[in-house]
User: Which sequence fits this backbone?
């Protein structure tokens, strides 16, 4: 069986770049597009297939780029459109695909659309945002905004109405019930498709359809940010129209939706009948503790919700919104074992820049806290060199360096074949060479308590992945004739599997003969 007709994104590993934190080339302490371009060869060496770049569009940066004031231009902080074109061309020349971040639920309050909309009740763009009558003391419903305990509504004194914002007051929600909004946002997709991007990561895309009655949520849910609760059927027809648009371009462009809710069955619905999102983030596994039972439950929930739809899963351990798994799981041994877990599952893995270095979150002194959502720690700059400035130029970067930046710099870890960086590289190379790991079926194997073991099989290729979540040795036969292909601690690779998995160790085993 060949997989020639399988879309590229099913067997790809995607690497997320938070552009502010990747590499600064002009000495202002903020990463830029040129910083990404200069390190493309490193990403090729590492072995990822695609990059997703978090927003680099014009923005007042209240939410560090997720508040867009022009969807079709690059913020001068990051460079120019010409810099983007050069980056895209150089990535494609190396066989790397490029996904960009599309933010359809809200704009910046400085976007000309909102400036116009809030200028008067009779503005031609008034209907592009969500306005409600009322009095300044009583928001229209009990929806809560993200990043605070405040309502998702701000009173506009000039025009005497409330406007809706599921995030910051500086991020007013677009009203997708207005056809002109949908048309304008489709135009922004076409703009980047025509430039040649390979797809989009779609920010909180499950929020573009809302119940037009905007009903309050039940009292016991009123403390949860409403963005985590929203689900409405109008989202699905909108996703189908976006899918049609994206699919009408040549070259298998992909839509990866952020469906930021804590329920995998809700995530699954956003794949539609293979006519909505190609891929959707599924965060419950990201929030799983380092425990075999918790991971098994979430893997089973994912399979149970997605498999009947023939929907292809995604797996993610870290991103720019959450503490890194290295920090959450508390040790490098676990971070390494988690890498084997992530890259051994069936679906498309997303890596977050820096996890391959085993970076922990930076400790942010109170005077340097920037993000209203408390997410600075995982956004610390990437150290490239062990030398002062870590390859970023002279100025202090926008956030403090992560712990052990000298030892964990890219150059230091590249020089050490036993490092976590080399573990990621070996895993990515193995995945690329193994149809079973890339696309194979998944089947649990019997394993002792504290251990998860599964088989991946594709035609003649067969791999076994075993993860010991416990702090003691585990003994598991699994099956006979297995060779250790990868060990999370690097020990015993190439040798026959002897039936033992160390504490917080993970293995990829393959039929030896
Ligand atoms: C998504 C982004 C997050 C951002 C929010 C609002 O959850 O990942 O960083 O703050 O949407 O755009
Ligand atoms: Ca810069």
Assistant:
């Amino acid at each position: 069986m060949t997989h020639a007709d399988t879309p590229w994104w099913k067997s790809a590993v995607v690497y997320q770049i938070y552009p502010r934190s990747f590499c600064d080339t002009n000495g202002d302490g903020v990463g830029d597009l040129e910083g990404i371009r200069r390190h493309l060869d490193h990403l090729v060496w590492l072995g990822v297939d695609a990059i997703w770049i978090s927003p680099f569009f014009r923005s007042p940066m209240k939410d560090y780029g997720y508040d867009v004031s022009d969807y079709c231009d690059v913020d001068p902080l990051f460079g120019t459109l010409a810099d983007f074109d050069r980056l895209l061309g150089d990535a494609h020349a190396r066989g790397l695909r490029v996904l960009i971040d599309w933010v359809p639920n809200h704009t910046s309050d400085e976007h000309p659309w909102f400036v116009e909309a809030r200028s008067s009740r009779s503005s031609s763009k008034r209907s592009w945002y969500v306005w409600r009558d009322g009095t300044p003391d009583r928001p229209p419903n009990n929806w809560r905004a993200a990043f605070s305990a405040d309502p998702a509504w701000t009173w506009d004194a000039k025009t005497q109405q409330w406007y809706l914002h599921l995030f910051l007051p500086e991020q007013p929600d677009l009203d997708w019930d207005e056809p002109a909004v949908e048309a304008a946002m489709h135009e922004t997709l076409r703009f980047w498709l025509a430039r040649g991007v390979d797809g989009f990561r779609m920010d909180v895309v499950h929020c573009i359809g809302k119940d037009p009655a905007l009903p309050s949520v039940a009292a016991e849910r009123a403390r949860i940010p409403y963005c985590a609760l929203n689900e409405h059927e109008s989202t699905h027809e909108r996703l189908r129209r976006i899918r049609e648009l994206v699919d009408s371009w040549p070259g298998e462009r992909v839509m990866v939706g952020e469906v930021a809710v804590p329920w995998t069955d809700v995530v699954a619905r956003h794949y539609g009948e293979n006519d909505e999102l190609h891929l959707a983030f599924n965060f419950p596994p990201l929030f799983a503790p380092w425990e075999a039972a918790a991971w098994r439950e979430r893997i089973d929930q994912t399979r149970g919700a997605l498999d009947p739809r023939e929907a292809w899963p995604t797996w993610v351990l870290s991103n720019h919104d959450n503490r890194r798994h290295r920090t959450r799981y508390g040790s490098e041994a676990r971070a390494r074992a988690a890498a084997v877990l992530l890259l051994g599952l069936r679906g498309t893995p997303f890596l977050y820049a820096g996890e391959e270095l085993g970076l922990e979150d930076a400790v942010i002194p109170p005077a340097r806290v920037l993000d209203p959502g408390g997410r600075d720690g995982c956004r610390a700059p990437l150290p490239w060199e062990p030398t002062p400035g870590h390859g970023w130029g002279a100025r202090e970067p926008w956030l403090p360096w992560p712990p052990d930046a000298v030892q964990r710099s890219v150059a230091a870890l590249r020089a050490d074949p036993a490092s976590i960086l080399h573990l990621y590289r070996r895993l990515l190379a193995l995945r690329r060479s193994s149809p079973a790991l890339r696309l194979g079926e998944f089947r649990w194997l019997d394993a002792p308590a504290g251990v998860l073991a599964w088989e991946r099989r594709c035609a003649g290729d067969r791999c076994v992945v075993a993860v010991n979540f416990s702090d003691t040795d585990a003994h598991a036969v699994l099956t006979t004739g297995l060779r250790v292909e990868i060990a999370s601690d690097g020990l015993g690779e190439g040798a026959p599997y002897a039936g033992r998995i160390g504490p917080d160790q993970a293995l990829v085993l393959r039929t030896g003969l």
Notes: The CA atoms of residues 89 and 114 lie 34 Å apart. The pocket of alpha-D-glucopyranose (ligand 1) is lined by residues 63, 66, 103, 167, 203-204, 258, 260, 320-321 (CB under 6 Å). The two ends are 21 Å apart (CA to CA). The chain has a mean pLDDT of 97.
